[in-house]
Write a structure and sequence with these properties.
heterodimer, A: mainly alpha, MetI-like fold, globular, B: mainly alpha, 3 domains, 2% strand
Amino acid sequence: MKKNTKTLFYLAIFLYLFIIIFPFIWVFLTSLKPEAEIWGAGALKPFGSKMTFEHYQSLYRGGILTGLKNSLIIATITTTYVTIIASFAAYAIARLKFRGKTLLMVLILSTSMFPQMIVVGPIYQKFVELGLTNSYYITLPYSMISLPISVFILINHFSQIPKEMEESARIDGASKLRTFFSVILPLALPGIFTAAIMTFIGVWNEFLLSLTLNPDAAWRTAPVAISFLRGQFTVYWGQVTAATVVVTIPTLLIVLLFQRQIISGITSGALKE
Amino acid sequence: MNFRKRLDDSTPYLLILPVVIFLFVFAILPIAQSLRFAFYDYQLNDQRKNDLYSNPSYNLRLHDETIKYLHFYLDSEAVSVEKEETTQAIAALKEKLTSYDEEVKQLVPSPQMQPVVEVSEEVLEKIEAGKQELVKELNQLYALEDAFTLEEDIHAVAGGFDESVVQPNFTPTENFEEMLQDRRVRSTMRFTLIFTFISVFLELILGIALAMIMNQAIKGRGLIRTTSLIPWAIPTSVAAMMWGYLYDGSAGIVAHLFSSIGLLSKPTDLLLKSGSTLWAIVAADVWKTTPYMALLLLAGLQTIPDTLYESSSLDGANKWEQFRHITLPLLKPSIFVALLFRTLDAFRVFDLIYVLTGGGPGGSTESISIYAYKIMFGQTRFGYGSAIVLTMAIVVGIITFVYIKSLNVKLMGGDGS
């Protein structure tokens, strides 16, 4: 009986891992098959008659590499400024007294709960009016999707720093600003890094704003560029799977390198209690 | 010294200032603007509706263009006509045109060169009278027998005068009335709620099970956790493309598998029959977010002290009783947060469906976000689209309220410390 449960248990784990990983493996195998063998009778075979890199070579034309470059620049700019201003605000909320703190927190929280669709229309209209579409200005409205999570992760980390550190700095006569920059920030670096990783992933994956504000092929981010590989009538799955592999690699690297930060970010961003 | 003290006192405000500015410009202002749009018949591709007009106005830029084109067309006609009499009539009409233009410029002063100026009904009437006079002259000209070539074009251009008259498009109830009549609003809302309920329910059940597995001291725990992060971390549109391939009627292995075990009559049904498409979307969503849900719940599980389980098993409680009386109650805050955020996320689903099915077949998998997007960016009807989005926001408010009431948990834990 006991042994049976254990077998069942491991079988469940194996099944779970298989379901998660299988799509990636299958997509990777398909990306190496000749286009003709992806359809019909060849569709169920894991390997083609020969291995080909033609789909990867065609990615230049599909705009995927431009998309990756745009995504990288846009995500980096957003992550940098959002993390800086979020850490200012998070420190004030976690440690300092000021009027309107509850209001500010409610505002930040509700921003993260509203459907994004509600801001897209007016932002698009203003961007068109000011001629800001198809540019790196898209990084500015990205604050709306990344600031709330970043601030909440950072509040969590700042409130874990022992209060004595600040108090001794105060006794030495340091101002609040000085204390923040020279005592708190260095101690909070791991937390700041976590917030930065979460912002980066969030912006890297964003779709709706990118689709509406940067519609030109030259300005599309990777997630939008890949969605355009789906044509009106035909889809070249070879190209799609190759693009999927290429776009997944950066994410995979981030996950493998920073999984501890990501897990801490997921849990500290959501669990406020 | 005094300055330092004041700087120190204002430090918190200085620190929150950038975030407050960004929140104001990119969240609060656009939300307020959306709210305004919802009360106007605001359409970007219609000259008379592409701004918010509470009062009647006159579009001077369009007026100027119309005048310019009419002159140009009349000049061309003057070249092609043959009779002396007609040439004179054209010259007379061109003079009329100039004097009409001057009259309008006097009636509608635009000191700051604004393209569109608010005017009174009275002025509009005068402009209209002048215009009708002009059209009459134009018709008289074309009544003459001569080698005209541009009659139809000139009438089309003259229509610009009508377009220049902007009636107020403040229609406070129209968008909402239209929404009540709009069957697509109802069907997309119903689809979104069904999708949200099914996927969040499945994700919660599977997520709890998975979190409990991950909480066991077993070999390969690290591997399971790392693997779980991958579906969550990849872009939704990439996941959607991937599943689009696996579901494809002629190339997809999942579609083939389902039809060979009898779940589908033929592989192409998976994305072409509305019933199975819903489940295909749900499955892709469950695949992408269950691991995330599990990680959230795992964090909650880890805060439950082992001693509770040990003492209860000494009291003779079995695993199921432990689950019901220890795990579930203590996990409630985590479940609440995970459920709330997943529900709101699922309710605004856009990328997954937009890329996987585009709302098809026949609009049967259109979510309310996708419908609002099509109204705004496909038909450029921002007023109506905003009204739909506003309704979404209200539903979000109701969902949040119901969760807080029914689970009886505080949204922000105490004073946050």
